[in-house]
Each structure stands twice: as C-alpha cells, then as structure tokens.
Amino acid sequence: MKLPDFIEARTRDKRDYKTVSFNIDESIKNKYAGMKFHLKTYGCQMNEHDSENIKALLTMIGFEEVEDYENADLVLLNTCSIRENAHNKAFGMLGRLKHLKEQRPEILVGLCGCMAQEVSVVEEIMKDYKFVNFVFGTHNLHEFPNIIDKAIEENKQQIEVYSRESDLVEGLPVIRANKYKAYVNIIYGCNKFCTYCIVPYTRGRERSRKKEDILKEVDELVKDGYKEVTLLGQNVNAYGKDLYDDYNMGNLLEDVAKSGIPRVRFTTSHPWDFTDNMIDVIAKYDNVMPSIHLPVQSGSSRVLKLMGRRYTRESYLELFDKMKERIPGVTISTDIIVGFPGEEEEDFQQTLDLVDYCKYDNAFTFVFSPRVGTPAEKLNDNVPLKEKEERLQRLNEKVNTYFLENNKKLEGSVLDVLVEGISDKKNMYYGYSDTNKLVNFISNKELELGDIVPVKITASKTWSLDGEVDE
Ligand code: SAH
Ligand code: SF4
Ligand code: F3S
C-alpha cells in the first residue's frame, strides 16, 4: 500500500528522472479476456488523454469497453480535483456504484486521476468506501495492469499512489478517441503553484518529454492520417526548461509544424513565459493554428498578485496586443475566476473592463473553489457565495455578448474547417475552423471525414456558426 502525501508533493527540489520504456508482464496479457469495462473521465484534456492510455492498457489485458456502466465488470473513474463540483460528481458516482455493488458484488470499482493524489480523498475511500477495489494515481498509470491484477488475485483493496513523480514512461499504448485529432503530451506537471490551484500537487513537477520522442509520435500520427495534433501540458511554455539549455517551446512548435501535419494546436499557455519566438512561429507557419488559449484569471493586478500569477493586468494586455498585432486573424480565449478571497467589487469591475478590451472569442468562467492544501484555501474569504454567483452571471453575460459580436463579423467570410462528423440532430456536417470556431454546415457533395474544406459562413450564434461549403 502506498498513500499520497501533500507535504511531499509540495517539495520543489529538482529531481532526476529517467525516460524508460513501457513494459507489460506477458503473464497478464489477455488474462481477463471476456471482461467488460466502463471508464468515466471527469477532467481536462490531459485527463482525457490518460483515459486513452488506460483504455489501451485494459484492452491489452483482455477487457472490452461497454457504454453502459451497469453492464460492466469493471467501472473505473478517472477523476479531477480542480473544483468542488468535479469532486462531487465523482463521489456521486461512487454512491451509485455502492448500490450497484449491493446487487452485483462481483463487479470491480477503481478510482484514478487527480483525486487519487489527494490525501483526504484516499482517507475517505479507505474509511467510507471500502467497496472500492483499487486506487492508483497520476504518477503510476503505467503500473495499472499489475494493480488491477493484484486487486483481483488478492481480493482486497489496493491503494497505490505515489506523491512524487516517477520516471517518464515512453511507449504507453493508446486508443485515441478521435481519428483525425490527437493529443500529444509534451510536458507533465506544473511548477507555477498559483495559490488557488491543486494541479502542482496532483501532477507533480514539470517534466518535459524528449523532443525526439514527441517528434516521432507526431510523425507516426501524420503517417496514420491524423490531421491535427494538440500539444498538451499544464503550462506548455515551460517546455524544455528542465531538459535543455537551448531548445524551448518555440523550437518545438517549429519542429512540429515542419512535420507537415495540417494543424498544430497547443494548450495551455501561461501568460508569464509566452515568448516572442512562439508568437513568430505561430505567425510564420500556416499549419500552426491562429488560436491561443491565454488564461487571465482576473483583470485586477492586486488579485493577480494574491493568486500568485506572476504577471500584471498591464503586462498581460501588452502580450495580448502583441499577439493580435503580429498574428493575423488570431482568436484568443481565456479562463477567469471570480470571487477569489479578497476580490472587491472594484477588482471585479477591472475584470469586466479587461473583457471589454479583449473581447475574447471564448472564455471559461468559474467561481473560486477552495482546494484542500492550497494557500488560497487559508485566505480570509470575505465575499459571500451569493455575491460570487452574481458576479459570475454578470461576467457570463458580458463574455457571451462578445462571442456573438465576434461571430457576427464572420458572416459572409470563408473559413477552413476540418470535417469531423455529421450531427444527428441537425443532419449537418460539423467541425472546427483554424480559429477554433465550431461550424455546422451543409454541402452539395458528400464529404470525406477528415478533409479540410472551405466553408462560407451564413449565420452566427453565440457558440457556433452555420455555413455551406464554398465551391
Ligand atoms: N494550467 C492551466 C489551468 C488548468 S486548470 C493554466 O494555468 O492556465 C483550468 C482552469 O481552472 C484555470 O485556468 C482556472 O481558471 C480554473 N481553476 C483552477 N483552480 C481553480 C479553483 N480552485 N477554483 C476555481 N477555478 C479554478
Ligand atoms: Fe494551476 Fe497555475 Fe499550474 Fe495552471 S499554471 S496548472 S493554474 S498552478
Ligand atoms: Fe483536473 Fe487534474 Fe486536469 S485536477 S483539470 S484532471 S490536471
């Protein structure tokens, strides 16, 4: 048994880690043939990508996926700790599984992902959710086949969670959710320690994958007919800092662009270390998409300081202006937290004012959610919940007006769209533009999924555009 520990997780010492190749014991390959699994994913793109690895690992040991969890032999929850509601959703599901297990005691229940890294969660599972068969963390996903094997063989709860990152494992199997768009991890973990955020505790310190390994994966995706890669990291701009003296995110972005894959995206970028070189590469290469997610969190420098974000309203806007100026047609999206402890009406007004200036193309807005073990949890929170919710509503009204206003300006223009599928409801094709706009469209001719086609925009909505293929 190995339990997580936040004090250990908080240590910032630079550890040496090795890159090792994934390996699986021959004895467990296909051992569970005929068994069915259902996997639920609660978190960010990184969490979704982990699920793509988990599915492949389960397939290797013989499991098959089923859509309905009630028909599964194994239900696995890949969890997220970022806000309380993600947390509550996973515990709600555990409640339902408790009932299911009363009717079908033989089913297996497992929990992994970021919540597994939280001491308080693991303690609660050991005390009140004894029916959970196994728990493993974000640092030992590659060991999962052995953990499940042990849980079945020994028929007792297995808790295997490491507080600190392990070696970087290359060659994990993957079953990708999409045939045209692929996630590629470039850096794991986060060193930023924004005061509200739990990620550095659940994902460990920054560790970059070797550039050769990343470029090889991208080349294989090109060969397999993929049209788009999204380079993933909690802060992709830190890429390479832990590994190289003279190779950074700008260099990697350029090398990935040169692979010839039609579309390159990346997420997430912290405004603090977004370099001019990155901006130049985005501007120079047509296949690096002109769409940047640049979380601001707050428009008040005072609140940004409390959040430990390392930039000010002014320096953020300077970067924002530079992007708009140097990258033609770029769209910028953001994340905003309202109701951070100490946020006064005046600070919130500054956030609204910043939104008026930036007129974002998309924004994810949240009410601050205190996370156990983070510095912000201990700050004196003077803002009543009702007030926070009101602020969120006011903010949402404002961001939505700009989504629609920006989309309206696109009516009559032609956007390149990757054909991703046909929506059942509308019987229209759908896909995303270079600038990351969702487009529903019609075509006189039948289209191949995975093609990139010009679409003339005929109507605009807040969250999507309508159009027809421009022939
Ligand atoms: N690495 C990314 C963030 C990942 S979390 C970055 O730094 O941009 C995604 C978003 O969740 C954050 O940008 C933030 O807006 C929000 N978030 C994180 N912790 C939160 C908390 N404790 N309460 C509310 N929102 C939070
Ligand atoms: Fe969290 Fe900040 Fe790291 Fe993003 S940069 S994952 S918000 S600590
Ligand atoms: Fe959630 Fe972990 Fe991602 S906390 S947002 S799943 S890194």
What does this structure look like?
The protein has 471 residues and is of the alpha/beta class. It has three domains: 6-160, Rossmann fold, CATH 3.40.50.12160; 184-408, tm_1862 like domain (pyruvate-formate lyase- activating enzyme), CATH 3.80.30.20; 414-469, OB fold (Dihydrolipoamide Acetyltransferase, E2P) (Beta Barrel), CATH 2.40.50. It contains 13 helices and 21 strands. The chain has helices at residues 6-10, 45-60, 84-103, 119-128, 144-154, 199-203, 211-223, 249-258, 276-284, 301-307, 313-326, 345-358, 385-408; strands at residues 19-21, 36-41, 64-65, 74-79, 108-113, 134-136, 158-160, 168-170, 181-185, 187-188, 207-208, 228-232, 263-267, 291-293, 331-338, 362-367, 414-423, 428-433, 438-442, 452-460, 465-469. The strands form six sheets. It has a six-stranded parallel beta sheet with strand order 3-2-4-5-6-7, with helices on both faces. It has a five-stranded mixed barrel with strand order 17-18-19-21-20. Strands 9-12-13 form a three-stranded parallel beta sheet, sandwiched between helices. The protein is globular and about 65 Å long. The mean pLDDT is 95. The structure holds S-adenosyl-L-homocysteine (SAH), iron/sulfur cluster (SF4) and FE3-S4 cluster (F3S). FE3-S4 cluster is lined by residues 43-44, 46-47, 80-82, 113-114, 198-199, 202-203.
Features:
single chain, Rossmann fold, pyruvate-formate lyase- activating enzyme, OB fold (Dihydrolipoamide Acetyltransferase, E2P), 3 domains, six-stranded parallel β-sheet, five-stranded mixed barrel, 13 helices, 34% helix, globular, binds S-adenosyl-L-homocysteine, binds iron/sulfur cluster, binds FE3-S4 cluster
